[in-house]
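batch_manifest entry 22 of 60
target: Phospholipid/glycerol acyltransferase domain-containing protein
source organism: Mola mola
requested by: lab member K.T.
priority: normal
notes from requester: please return tokens only, no post-processing; we will run our own comparison against the previous entry in this batch. if the run fails, retry once and flag.
--- input ---
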Amino acid sequence: MGMYSMFNSKQLLVRRNGNNWSLPVSLSLQIGLMSITVFPVRLLLVSFFMLLAWPFAFAASFGRSEFLVEPQSLWRRFIDVCLRVIMRAMWFCGGFHWIKVKGEQVPPSEAPILTAAPHSTYFDAIPVTMTMCSIVAKLESSSIPVWGTLISYIRPVFVFRSHQDSRRKTVEEIKRRAQTAGEWPQIMIFPEGTCTNRSGLILFKAGAFIPGLPVQPVVLRYPNELMMPSLLSFRFKILWLTLCQLHNAMEIEYLPIYTPSDEEKENPALFANNVRKLMAKALELPLIDLSFEDREISLSQGELRVFDYSSLLEFNLLVCRLGLRTGTTEKMLEELARRARKLQGDWLGLEDFAQFLNLPVTDTLTQIHGLFDQHGDGQIDIRHYIIALSTVHRPSDSMETLKLAFKMYESKESGEVEEVNLAAILEIMLGVKEIELSGLFLSLDGPDTGKITYGKTGGIFQLQETFQFMCNECRIY
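--- output ---
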């Protein structure tokens, strides 16, 4: 399934057109009426119950250790019950009048980790508040007014994004808690790692499966007449459209415990994929072999939007397979660019390419090398590889990738890049086969020298109409 159909499903009754949403006429009338009658009342009640929950969560969280679990005293149990009641009342006021639950949640001693999917909306928090399970959350979420206190109450595994080894520390903490034989609360993890629109299950991240302990899959369904928009849309519109529905249906199904085999314990990726297959079968959804990083590429924003993702997604899959994607940092990209500049455009064969990356020659590395073999002679320009790596590493920061490319191509004396080289840079960044820049160069002030500095590119790409026309004229891979 293509990237566009994956993340912009035509099954949705609410369809996005640019930055606007189009609705069937009957639903538009319903939304309009509900917006001036029910919506403000519901919003007020939801806000009230959220504020009401705050002092309970604050009292129970105050002075509590981040690393030890205290015995569940009587007053803490009372607060836990109060919070469950308050949060359920909040969801009721939001239109979730009854929530269908299938199966039974097992205790943490039997399955310390719950894997929930698909992840698509704010309201995936409902099973969390019903169970008071821990979650994995970024540290910044704890500082959100009111909601941050509620998140802290459920003892989340915080991700310290500022730390270089945050992923490793997060996995270690999940593993530590999971191995305490039920001492810590269960952890509910959304292994997709990002939001989709529920049209399929993308690749699961391995974090929940690295401990090699039994997990209980949890599948979420929203069988509404008006499909609830996902977090891929504007966040306020999710809240608005949901609160304007008379009733929001939701189903939570707890599947049987999945106990990993010895092979799965040794191979978390295999464990994750087998659980994904089981959940996809229960949901009657297809498996879509796209990852969290693929989604970031497909939804990239910025001055230079990717026009065709196919080549970049193929490249991203291969560098992830080699482990190159995880280790990519700004500093590493700068170092690669510095070394590439010294080569002054020399072409590299497969052996030289492997030596440049300090990797052995493998089938995957051969495939990556082949992606940039333009002339079929077994030689590539290493700068093309670095531009592609930077693009998939920071898909929404295209101007930084362009700046990096200029450092590799620009003249030492003038800092200029020739038109043919800028075209080659943009072809990789945009995923197009052939691009014509003469129209853009003519839009520059002064004579057309066929060269450009990085400082002038910002002005060019602000000419959206001209740039859009140029991209429509180019040929796609």
